[in-house]
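agent> Task received from the user: take the single chain below, predict its 3D structure, and emit structure tokens. No templates, no multimer pairing.
agent> Plan: (1) validate residues, (2) run structure prediction, (3) serialize to tokens, (4) report one or two observations.
agent> Step 1 OK, no nonstandard residues flagged.
tool_call: predict_structure(input=
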Amino acid sequence: MTSGSRAGDRRVEGTKIVQRRAVSAVLAAAALVLTAGCSSEDDGGPPGGTASATPSRTTTERSPSAGGGTAEKAPPATGTVKVVRTVAEDLDSPWGLAPLPDGDLLVSSRDEGTIVRVDGETGEKTQLGEVPGVSAAGEGGLLGIALSPEYASDHMVYAYFTSVSDNRIVRMLYDEKKPAGEQLGAPDTIFKGIPKGFVHNGGRIAFGPDRMLYAGTGESGEEGLSQDKESLGGKILRLTPEGEPAPGNPFPDSAVYSYGHRNVQGLAWDARQRLFAAEFGQDTWDELNAIEPGGNYGWPEAEGRSGESGFRDPIAQWSTDEASPSGIAYAEGSIWMAGLGGERLWRVPLKGTKASADPQSFLEGEHGRLRTVVPAGGDRLWLVTSETDGRGSPGEGDDRILELQVS
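)
tool_result: status=success, residues=407
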């Protein structure tokens, strides 16, 4: 497939896993310095929405120093990306990715509702099984997956998926000793009632440095849900591994951690345990946000940087044909953001909770739509393409997992 054919597939749709395994548990809420942000996939809204009339440009919010505490050194203003190898090919609608301790990878298929294990060296694929109850349609299906923070002892895999009635989070025992296709235990639903829609189902889940489970949700196409703190739509949620509202959450007895989002699909923490999130805008701006507990990120009253009192502005924003952000990861001092409609990987260098230089794009049009990016240790990333989800132009070998070296 040529880059030209991929470029013709911009902004046609409406809506990981980033899991950082902490070396120590930070359970006290006072120890959390967490920050993050959401847009609908490529068209910025449901089918039939108006096209963006904004100039095709990227803007950032920068400051010479940010983040508090001791001074932080920003990475170089420009970086590099090298595709080291293709890890696996011929994946069907891949969405979430969870690295296993031995270097293999678990990948969820949005449309098939299955989880596959990919050998990290050979790319050989083994199906664990199908997740019962998945109802795939539009942007819904089997979405994010994550490993339990106690995976070494409990072997639990968490998944966010769309059912016939809602979006929900389950956990399943993964038994490698059973035959292929039968290795997933029955799902235990730990959290349910997240609004579902044909678009804007959110779906990214990740365990934070505090060992709590974070989930990005969408407003399911109903704008009013995002500002309603009683609704689970258009939010970032923070839960215990058992699915209860996490201790220290900003609203009493609530799983809601931040609100005013449109469709959160990227979650990542920096080296100082601060949370960042990516979200889809509608017709104007896609966003990367630094997340504060209880923060209001403006949707639908504000899209992109508004400067309005009461709303938190994004640290970087993109015209919607350049991004349609999905997964994000932190490596080498920068946030790396996968773009669906933009068909490129963005690098946002950080100083504290601000962008220290303009975002830089890589791989534009070379691998099509990019869905998920996950840290692979040091200067390496895993990158998952998304050409077989019904909105791409799949070619031979799609979809793929790539290994990247970045700086």
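agent> Step 4: summary for the user.
The helical segments are 3-7, 151-154.
agent> Done.
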